Amino acid sequence: MADVARTVTAGSGPARRAGRALTSGVGRSAGAVRRRIRRSTHAGGAGESGLAKLIELHAVNSAGDMMITVALASTVFFSVPSGEARNRVALYLLITMAPFALLAPVIGPILDRLQHGRRAAMAMSMVARAVLAWTMAGVVSTAGLGLYPAALGSLVGSKAYGVVRSAVVPRLLPDRTTLVKANSRVTLSGLLATAVAAPIGAGLHLIGPQWPLYGAFAIFIFGAVLCMALPSKVDSARGEGKARLTADEEAPPEPSGIPGRKPGLLGVGSSVLHALQGNCGLRALSGFLTMFLAFMLREHPIGGLSPALSLGVAGVAAGAGNALGTALGAWLKARGPEVIIATALICALSVATVAAGWFGLVTVAAVTATAGISQALAKLSLDALIQRDVPEEVRTSAFARSETVLQLSWVVGGGIGIVLPLNGSLGMATAAGLVLIAFLVSVRGLLGAARRGSSTKARVA
Q: Which pLDDT tens digit goes with each residue over 176-200?
């Protein structure tokens, strides 16, 4: 007995030391990762201006949205036969996206009235989605009708956050940093967080379908705390006005101010309006490809792959394209934003047309990657034009309202994707048609604006 005790005693010491060493090593590694992330988010004066806090907040927001996406996709899409899945997603679109299409146009004007409470508005969107995630966790296993109103609320909360976030970025710009470069850093943080959260959400789903939603609840509560930690200047509306999405540009009101006279709305100008039209086409393309390919590749996998692998190829290509497009924005520093948007439309139209004629694994990956690159570059270019051409006093309002229009365009494209017959060539032809409409509406105005130039040179990054 004594021998056994001595053996256990002897063995416990090395085990404790090994455990302490492992814990210490993990702690040092985690600390090194945190320091590296902090250096990245705080670079270029972002720490001093407060932009770093917004970058970190957007990463948290994107991770929470991904958790909800994993939970809903696994319940509404992957857990049932493909025919029933299409009916469920059609019901999901009808109950959630149709009301959202009605609500989206008023999100911007409503948030215009919250200029002095943007931190609170973002925190409320986080808290609301946390409560809705907890509510969905109770019904997600049965996919009952109670899931859909909560999903609609989560969707509206996410889009409301996106609108406010676009309006907040101009208030947190570091010195010598363009608005577009700041937006690209925020976007990249969201993409990276999504890439990390997706496998974590899938792992939580293996425990139970409700666990990704519990994870989203915790993430959004943390995000609400981060919202209130943003600098107070986020809530300042000094010198701001309201913009309308028209081509005409009225003169701003006299600075002296006449008692009882309301300041007028300023048009954003033709360059921004045509850029927004082009972006709407690319955003509609993204929504269409998301919905159409989700069913098309599950029902008819391509390249001899399984449905899951076919979907994986399309998803990875789209994500990689989005990240590449955001990174390319830093390289295209001196190029004209109008030309970049026109080029993005031409590339997306060309690749979709080729995919319509030769539908296969390579062309599907090419069209999703091109859509990701084009959408990212076009959005960065739209940001550059708003920064260049929209007066500072209405710039924040222009960001808020343009973001609402872009979100609505995604809904329209997704709705077309869900009702279209599952024919690959027909789907790619429809995708090309969406881009063609945007091209015909916007490209003449874009190229004309590029030839005229501007008194202030725009930068894409």
A: 777 767 877 888 888 889 989 989 9
Gap between the terminal Cα atoms of the chain: 74
As a dihedral over the C-alpha atoms of residue 291, residue 293, residue 296, residue 297, rounded to 10 degrees, the angle is -130
Q: Which two tokens stand for residue 420?
A: 């279209």
Closest CA to 155 of 199, 93, 202, 239: 93
Q: Taking the model in full, what pTM does it have?
A: 0.73
Give CA torsion, residues 317, 319, 321, 322, to 10 deg. Answer: 160
**Residue listed under structure tokens 């792992």:** 203
Region of 115 please: left (phi>0), alpha (psi -120 to 50) or beta. Answer: alpha
CB of 299 closer than 8 Å to CB of 82: yes
CA distances from 216 to 81, 96, 187 (A): 27, 19, 20
* Helix or strand holding residue 34 (H, E): helix 2-42
Q: Are 226 and 157 in contact (CB under 8 A)?
A: no
Please tell me the distance from the alpha carbon of residue 253 to that of residue 264, in angstroms, as a whole number: 6
Say if CB 185 and CB 172 are below 8 A apart.
Answer: no
